[in-house]
Amino acid sequence: MFWNRVLLALVVGVAAYALALVLAGRFVGDQLFDRLGFGPSDGEIDNGRPYEYVRLLYGVLGAVIVGWMITVGAIVIGPLRKGEPWAWWAIAGALIVWFGLDTSLSLVLGFTGHAAFNLVFAIGLAIPMAVIRLQLRGRPVG
User: Fold this and answer.
1) What's the burial of 31, exposed, middle or buried (CB within 10 Å: 0-12/13-18/19+)?
2) Extended strands (E) in the chain
3) pLDDT tens sequence across 65-100
4) Quick one: 44 and 60 in the same domain?
5) What is the distance of C-alpha 67 from the center of its chain?
6) How many Cα atoms sit within 13 Å of 72 on the Cβ side?
């Protein structure tokens, strides 16, 4: 039970840090992420290597998405397949938070193309989620 609490505390801490990156990205990124990840850089966020820095950001984002999808996949093939309602809510909650934060930030920063991509992707995910929800409620699905 102790280690379960430790793990949960770490998960909450990482989620809070990630949310701070979304909501106050420049401050949190400059003051914490960049300094911890790259060390002092005389005010240059990319250490004079903008191409490599962008590649790093894509790589970090890709790694996070892979980790997230492994977790979602494990829930899909385990508890969701067994019909456990909490599993649907866990996936739906993660998707709603992702869509809300990512799309809102994209719109605030003026990246409407990315917001549109999110919408198409979210619709694609919403269709099987809606069908599975109906199945969990015991309604016949065609």
Assistant:
1) exposed
2) none
3) 989 999 999 999 999 999 999 999 999 999 999 999
4) no
5) 9
6) 16
- Residue 22 neighbours by CB under 8 Å, 6+ apart: 101, 105
Same domain, 80 and 92: yes
What is the DSSP code (8-state) at residue 85?
H
37 in Cβ contact with 46 (< 8 Å):
no
- The greatest distance separating any two alpha carbons of the chain, rounded to the nearest whole angstrom, comes to 62
> The dihedral of CA 31, 102, 16, 37: what is its sign?
negative
What is the count of structural domains for the chain?
2
Q: Are residues 116 and 90 in the same domain?
A: yes
**Under a CB-based contact definition with an 8 Å cutoff, are residues 70 and 108 in contact?**
no
Cα distances (angstroms) measured from residue 86 to each of 77, 78, 124: 14, 12, 21
pTM for the model stands at: 0.77
